[in-house]
């Protein structure tokens, strides 16, 4: 009998370069010995978790940070993916908003986010006797504006995808070959990235953004950003999706829903979705000492 994996593999075979990349990634994951994978349910960390689980078995554990900046629907997907891959998932609470360096929203905000994440995860990994902490940075992140990678490197986190020389195209191809549903998942960034640099990040703003983007996902859009400009919600979707807003009264329904969330005005960006469209100012800062606690995992 042909298995589902065999069917998927036959439908999406790897080229020679991709097979070599996959072999390098497997070796890099074995080299970890044991690891706690910082798992966001994105395309990169899902592939990393899958290969670590395949190569390390029970010596691979997933850790997902729970905070106001992580969307509820992503958390549910993280639980389901970890269960499907067959690894233990640990939920840890992070407290980015308690760190003024993060909440004040400088352009290197991601540095303090990753600092908080790994300051939280490393002790949990140590308690479980895991030798390393790993995360999903890849070759395409090098040279981009990624202050979070600086924090990860400073704290000693490993990046097997990067170590194996994998970029996004190889990651998506291998993910598809392995039958991972995330192989074509759109890029995602934390909800704080929707707030202009220099404007304070608050739990209330993040909740508004999460609810607004959920409304768009439920309307059938896959790649969305709702940029928070005070009482204005600026929606970004790919330009090919823009006509849908004005078909069958969808624009009125979405506007009404976002106004119930608390926005006064709802705008659609005519330039469409642009990764990092909020990038601008520069900033500076220091570490967090907020208390941390583990949360029970409730599969659902």
Description:
The structure is a single chain. With 300 residues, the chain is an alpha/beta fold. The protein folds into two domains: 4-187 and 285-295, HUPs (Rossmann fold, 3-Layer(aba) Sandwich); 198-268, GMP Synthetase, Chain A, domain 3 (2-Layer Sandwich), CATH 3.30.300. 42% of the residues lie in helices and 12% in strands. It has a five-stranded mixed sheet with strand order 4-1-2-3-8, sandwiched between helices. It has a three-stranded mixed sheet with strand order 5-6-7, with helices on one face. α6 runs parallel beside α7 (147-155) and α10 packs antiparallel against α11 (250-261). The longest helix has 19 residues, at 109-127. The chain starts with a helix and ends in a 5-residue tail after the last strand.
- Name the helicity range: 40-55%
How many helical stretches? 11
Q: Structural class from helices and strands?
A: alpha/beta
Question: Averaging pLDDT over every residue, what do you get?
Answer: 89
Sequence stretches where pLDDT stays below 50 over 5 or more residues: 1-8, 280-300
Number of strands: 8
Strand content: 5-15%
CATH class annotation of the largest domain: Alpha Beta
Biggest sheet architecture: 5 strands, mixed
Rg from Cα: 20 Å
Comma- or semicolon-separated keywords:
300 residues, alpha/beta, Rossmann fold, five-stranded mixed beta sheet, three-stranded mixed beta sheet, 11 helices, 8 strands, 42% helix, globular, disordered N terminus, disordered C terminus
